[in-house]
Every structure is written in C-alpha cells, then in structure tokens.
C-alpha cells in the first residue's frame, strides 16, 4: 500500500470471509486492512456467531477466547496434512508418509459425500470417517512418544494433536467442511492479480478495491458474468430503493 505524501510503501493485507463450502449462499467478502492482527477479524465479525473454519494462525486465538461461547473453532485438515506433506518432501519421513496416507482416507469419504445433504453427510462421516480419525489419533500419540522432542516430526504431530478437538468437529456436524480450502480458492484470484496490481494507492483505495473484488468474485460464484452483473446493477442503482439494496447482491440478483 502506498503512503501518499511520504514516498513510502507499507505492507497491507486482504482478509477473506465466506460462507462454508456446503452452505447455500455463495458469497465472499474481502476486507482490506493495514495489518495481520487478529483485531481485524474481531472487528469484521463483530457480533457474528457460528462455526469458524481456520488454520492455527495466532491472530484467531484472541477472537476465540473473547467469544468462545458464540464462535466455535473448526480445524482445517488441509493445514494438518500440509505439515506432514512438507516433512515428507524435506527428509523422506516414513511417519509423515503414513500420516499423509491416513489423512487421505478422510478425503476419500469427503469426495463421496460432497453432493449429499448435511444429514446424509453426517451419517456417512460417522460411519466411515470416525474410525479413520480414531485410528489416526491413536497412531499419532503412539509415534509422538518415539520421536525426539523439538524435532520436525514432533512439531508436525503436535500441530494435529494440539488442534484435535477443532479438527474433529466435522464429525458432529454434516454442514461443516473438513478444511478451509474453499476460502483459499477465493483468495487465489487476488494472489494471481497482485503481481499486476502491485500497490493499493491508499487505505481507502484498498478498501474500495476490496469491495469491488467482493462483488466480482461473488458474481462468479453464482454463475454470473461479472461485466453483465455490474452493468445491470450500476444502471439500476440510482433509482433503486435503499431499503431494498440487498436485492442487488450477487447471490440474490436477477437481471432486469
């Protein structure tokens, strides 16, 4: 982000929030902030309550602590798997290889239940994923006792064991995804585009860009042509009642 008048730049961050992969609403909201502090997530979510799928970023911990009765932390299996995958690539760890193979069984079930209702998804998860997860937990605890304290293998195992309650919440709720890959996929266009954009002109400029990008990406998620969507909305906006502005959101919009 450019610092107008100072001739300097400042590292800024684009946070992304979306309904879960199994929710009916297809929408993403980007929030442009000057820092990566957890206070940004706290300010954005405000009084929102529900299940929040996150990785182990420390910035979320304050959020969970302040609203632990209202916000339930759900762990991400993709991040847990990544710890072992990176370890396997780095030193050909047999423990890491076996962990990756066991976690893969969870995703086999997820591919099977992807298009099912939450009720059926939960039933099959409890039938097929529960035994896999239980076996994995026992295996991790057993192998944790065999590896040196502070080793890369110990750290990879500790990441999963430390977050085990959050990682296993998907077994009790068929509406929950097993990872936050859905939101990471929504960040991808931004990650690709920033190589061309390079800078936001200011904090306000970044916030305006985030709002526009939220509409464009949400339009894509709902199968709309972004140009056609924005053209229609901007044409109707001057005469549209402010009390009915939500009708123009991408997941509710229909072309005039």
Architecture blueprint of SSEs:
Layout: E1 2-3, E2 8-9, E3 13-18, E4 28-33, H1 38-45, E5 50-53, H2 59-66, E6 71-74, H3 77-91, H4 94-113, H5 118-144, H6 152-162, H7 164-167, H8 181-197, H9 203-221, H10 226-236
Parallel strand pairs: 5-6
Antiparallel strand pairs: 1-2, 3-4
Helix pairs in contact: 1-2, 3-4, 3-6, 4-5, 5-6, 9-10
Descriptive overview:
By secondary structure, the protein is mainly alpha-helical. The chain folds into two domains: 2-72 and 181-248, no CATH class; 76-172, no CATH class. The protein has ten helices and six strands, in the order ββββαβαβαααααααα. It has helices at residues 38-45, 59-66, 77-91, 94-113, 118-144, 152-162, 164-167, 181-197, 203-221, 226-236, and strands spanning 2-3, 8-9, 13-18, 28-33, 50-53, 71-74. A two-stranded antiparallel sheet has the order 1-2. A two-stranded antiparallel sheet has the order 3-4. A two-stranded parallel ribbon has the order 5-6. The relative contact order is 0.15.
Q: Give Rg in angstroms.
A: 21 Å
The tally of domains stands at 2
Based on Cα principal axes, name the global outline: globular
Question: Strand arrangement, largest sheet?
Answer: 1-2
- Termini Cα gap: 38 Å
Order of helices and strands: EEEEHEHEHHHHHHHH
Please report which band the strand proportion falls in: under 5%, 5-15%, 15-25%, 25-35%, 35-45% or over 45%: 5-15%
Structural class: mainly alpha
- Counted by DSSP, the helix tally is 10
Quick one: how many beta strands? 6
Helix amount, in percent?
A: 40-55%
């Amino acid at each position: 982000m450019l610092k107008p008048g100072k001739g300097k730049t400042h590292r800024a961050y684009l946070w992304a929030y979306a309904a879960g992969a199994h929710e009916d609403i297809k929408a993403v909201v980007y929030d442009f902030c000057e820092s990566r502090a957890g206070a940004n997530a706290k300010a954005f979510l405000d009084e929102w309550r529900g299940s929040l799928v996150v990785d182990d970023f420390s910035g979320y911990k304050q959020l969970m602590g302040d609203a632990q009765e209202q916000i339930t932390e759900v762990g991400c299996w993709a991040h847990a798997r990544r710890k072992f995958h990176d370890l396997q690539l780095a030193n050909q760890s047999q423990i890491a290889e076996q962990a990756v193979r066991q976690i893969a069984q969870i995703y086999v079930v997820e591919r099977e239940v992807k298009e099912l209702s939450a009720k059926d998804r939960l039933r099959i998860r409890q039938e097929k994923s529960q035994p896999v997860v239980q076996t994995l937990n026992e295996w991790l605890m057993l192998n944790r006792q065999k590896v040196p304290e502070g080793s890369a293998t110990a750290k990879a195992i500790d990441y999963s064991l430390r977050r085990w309650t959050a990682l296993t919440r998907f077994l009790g709720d068929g509406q929950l995804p097993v990872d936050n890959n859905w939101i990471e996929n929504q960040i991808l266009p931004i990650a690709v585009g920033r190589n061309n954009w390079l800078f936001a002109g200011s904090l306000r400029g970044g916030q305006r860009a985030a709002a526009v990008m939220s509409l464009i990406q949400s339009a894509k998620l709902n199968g709309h042509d972004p140009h056609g969507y924005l053209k229609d909305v901007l044409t109707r906006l001057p005469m549209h009642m402010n009390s009915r502005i939500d009708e123009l959101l991408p997941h509710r919009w229909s072309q005039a």
